[in-house]
Amino acid sequence: MTPYLYNKQKWKIILLLFAMTIGIASLLYTNYLVKSLSASERTKAQVWALSTSSIMTVPDMDDQFISFVYQVRDSLTLPAIITDENQNIIFWRDLDSTKTNIKPTDITTSSLEYDPQYFKKELDAMQKQHQPIILNLESEGKWYVYYHESDALRQLRVFPYIQLALIALFLIIAYTIFNSIRKSEQNLVWVGMAKEAAHQLGTPISSLMGWIELIKFKFEAEDDDTINEMERDVQRLEIVADRFSKIGSIPSLTNHNIYKVLQDYINYFKIRTSDRISFEIAGDQDAEAMINVQLFDWIIENLLKNAVNAIESEGVITVTVQENLPKEEIIIDIADTGKGIARSNFEKIFQPGYTTRKRGWGLGLSLTKRMIEYHQGSIAVKESELGKGTIFRITLKSNISYEEVKQ
Q1: CB count in 10 Å sphere of residue 76
Q2: Residue 317: how many CB atoms within 10 A of its CB?
Q3: Buried b / exposed e along 259-288 (16+ C-beta atoms within 10 A)
């Protein structure tokens, strides 16, 4: 892993820990407020229960004092119910007035009755929320006081989760925007550097081509294999420089025979590779697709170089071309007998900066993936086993439709 990728992951972990710290602190503080408010509401409920029991059980209470007790009782704004030991309702307050009293079914009486179903529902809800407040009365036995928590308390319980969701949404949007701006700036820098490198390479490459022509003429070496291979390498440098000059531009795609393009590049590449590594190509020789040959050669070059580096001594690199016409696609498998890739790294290897080599920028497969996406294709690790080898699969859109073949 390169220092760049390590630092990037380190900062992500730091930011994640910071966000988690804020979230946990918010939850703990809100939990503290909820407990404080809940204790305050229970105290109010106790005061209300005691004042209600005083009104209902203390005879001959002084008028001024009873007025004070009424004011204390009525100061409570929580829905509450008082029951006896048999769960019979004695008193209630702040419940739905349309359901606490219903018209009697017997038309001979005018007294109002409460709705038992509504009270049972409310009482069950209150019993689940809090332990009852128990009043021990000498003449009446035990009274049980149940109450609902306030709307403010219920909202306070939910508030931190809403707050965290909003903060997370804000951070995601902000990260996406800043990350997009940063990538755009980085791309401009890389594009500028690539075009400048191509410009600087242009002059010495042209000079080398001229010197090669001069050597051929001076020594009458038109058919010399060594000089011809030198000329191919200089032409390759010219292609590489042209690649860099086109970075940042939309590549033009033309129809080509995929098998032939692959074969031509493999013939060039294998001469410049160890004799202990053999190359094989097989499959559909008529497969055609819309590609940019220079970029496509770059894709194959990166994959073959990775395969060569994965083979520590002797090995085989096999390239297979298949047409999957029902899906109108071309599949290219590049297999090696190298050291393999751990399954946990199947996705990481396409990230910029990721490399297992001591010397490397970790950009080869990342650029390969991007160039394949330019071709409206995809790349993935089809399969890999440590110590046995790896198969990369490239999928391109076929230039021949399934309907054309059936006709």
Answers
A1: 20
A2: 25
A3: bebbbebbebbbeebeeebebebebbeebb
pTM (two decimals): 0.51
Helix 293-310 to helix 225-245 angle (10° resolution) is 110
Largest Cα separation within the chain, whole Å, is 135
Given this model, what pLDDT does residue 402 score?
A: 45
Q: Which two tokens stand for residue 368?
A: 């390969």
CA nearest to 272, candidates 301, 299, 244, 311 = 301
Q: Do residues 105 and 99 lie in contact, with contact meaning Cβ atoms separated by under 8 Å?
A: no
Q: How far is the CA of 91 from the CAs of 69, 95, 126, 135, 350, in angstroms? A: 16, 11, 14, 13, 71
Contact between residue 331 and residue 284 where contact means Cβ atoms under 8 Å apart: no
Rounded Cα distance between 117 and 120, Å, is: 5
Q: Which two tokens stand for residue 373?
A: 């996406």
Helices (H), 246-400: 258-271, 293-310, 364-374
Neighbouring C-beta atoms of residue 155, cutoff 10 Å = 10
Question: 257: helix, coil or strand?
Answer: strand
Pairwise CA distance, residues 381 & 365, whole Å = 11
Could you report the per-residue pLDDT of 82-117, keeping only the tens digit for each?
888 888 887 787 777 666 665 544 444 444 456 778
